[in-house]
Write a structure and sequence with these properties.
The chain is of the alpha/beta class and about 250 residues long. The chain is built from six helices and twelve strands.
């Protein structure tokens, strides 16, 4: 009986040890971290419908590398899409950025650049761009064929004030070709220098800008064609419903 009892005890001990070993094995196996697949590549699409050329794919890649956020080769789980978007939209040349992971293990970035509408060289020596939303953009190394604004146009306040006018002039096929320069005089009034004719178009402020330009278009065909293109020194559009020629 004693021998039988010893055998049972040994068997119980072996079963216990076996179960304990299994539980340890299962605990280690099922709690082992699953390795995230690596990012296999980066795809960048720039929706530059206005062909501004202010941001390109190489510059976006260089920006991410400089911020130590370039995702290729990193575990996908470690790629913070929100952080990528925040860094990209902090660029003065990017309006919106959308980042997402694809089923193929790649990171896709879609960029909407900011759209400049005026190039400003003001009387304080500042050189910058005004974009279509009223923001300002640094000159940087970029060059573009935009309407130029000079004079009393401080960077801190000119974006919201002149963006709508700049957008209208830039996107109008006639005025984008006809206007050579926009000048803001010491009184804060807007003067347009046309390419054709030896005169200045005085707009005053930006109010009713579409109506003022419409009046000027009619005066081009109904007035200047008859009176002569060099008869007036100033064409004043400041007053509602009027076109005043000053000799």
């Amino acid at each position: 009986m004693q021998k039988s009892s010893i055998i049972k005890t040994i068997l119980k001990l072996l079963v216990f040890l076996g179960l304990a070993s299994y539980f340890v094995f299962a605990l280690v196996k099922f709690n082992r971290p699953v390795h995230s697949p690596e990012c296999t590549g980066l795809d960048i699409v720039i929706d530059d419908e206005h062909c501004t050329g202010f941001i390109n794919e190489n510059e976006i890649r260089e920006l991410l590398v400089s911020k130590k956020l370039f995702p290729e080769g990193k575990p996908l789980d470690d790629v913070d899409l929100t952080e990528l978007e925040n860094v990209l939209t902090a660029s003065p040349y990017i309006d919106e950025a959308l980042c997402f992971k694809t089923a193929e293990g790649r990171i896709s970035i879609r960029i909407a650049p900011r759209v400049p509408v005026l190039h400003v060289f003001n009387s304080d020596g500042e050189d910058y761009y005004i974009d279509s939303r009223g923001g300002t953009m640094p000159r940087g190394h970029h060059t573009t064929d935009l309407l130029v604004m000079t004079g009393n146009a401080p960077r801190k306040t000119s974006g919201p004030r002149y963006a709508a006018m700049g957008t209208l002039l830039d996107r109008d096929p006639f005025w984008s070709q006809e206007i050579q320069e926009i000048h803001v005089n010491a009184d804060g009034e807007i003067e347009l220098t046309p390419r054709v004719g030896d005169f200045i178009i005085l707009l005053g402020d930006t109010s009713a800008i579409e109506d003022k330009l419409s009046r000027m278009r009619r005066f081009y065909s109904e007035g200047l064609d008859k009176a002569g293109w060099n008869r007036y020194k100033i064409i004043n559009l400041k007053f509602n419903g009027q076109v005043i020629g000053v000799k």
